[in-house]
Amino acid sequence: MYNLYTKFVKILEICKQFSENLVNESGNVPRRGPVPKFSDLEVVALSLTAETESIDSEKWLFDYKLQEYKDCIPNLISRRQFNDRRKKTAGLCEELRKRVAMEMDGGEEQFFVDSKPIEVCRVARGKRCKMGRTGDFSQAPDFGF
């Protein structure tokens, strides 16, 4: 599944499945005003798709990555509209995540989560530090552990 559009469609189907009473029939959170062509569920699905691809830059997503799929996604909104609507639908996105997590929970005690690696600590003085340079290294851990 290397195709961004394929991932978008699959995530959109999952969002539709778990958004029973959160959105109306067109996939939007009920509010006054004109009905947008690109629904709120599609905004959430595109946001989640970008997260699964580890795309942090909306500029890169819209200027380069989504240019290949303009024919497949005809109602694609601009980057500014995407950012505004993504902020407005943050609650919807979080509720969908909770519902998917509750469905996945089968009574397991341990879960493996794949996410971005975050640097917890850094060995800043490791190469200059003289402490522990001499001695028996047969049972010592590798550098950084």
Give the averaged pLDDT, no decimals.
83
Work out the number of β strands: 0
Using the CA coordinates, give the radius of gyration. Answer: 22 Å
The helix count comes to 5
Organism: Bacteroides caccae
Protein name: IS982 family transposase
Explain this structure to me?
The chain has 145 residues and is mainly alpha-helical. The chain has a domain at 4-104. The chain is built from 5 helices and no strands. Helix 1 (4-18) packs across helix 2. The longest helix has 15 residues, at 4-18.
What key attributes describe this structure?
145 residues, mainly alpha, 5 helices, elongated, IS982 family transposase
Short description:
The chain has 145 residues and is mainly α.
Summarize the helices and strands and which ones pair or pack.
Layout: H1 4-18, H2 40-52, H3 58-65, H4 79-88, H5 90-104
Helix pairs in contact: 1-2
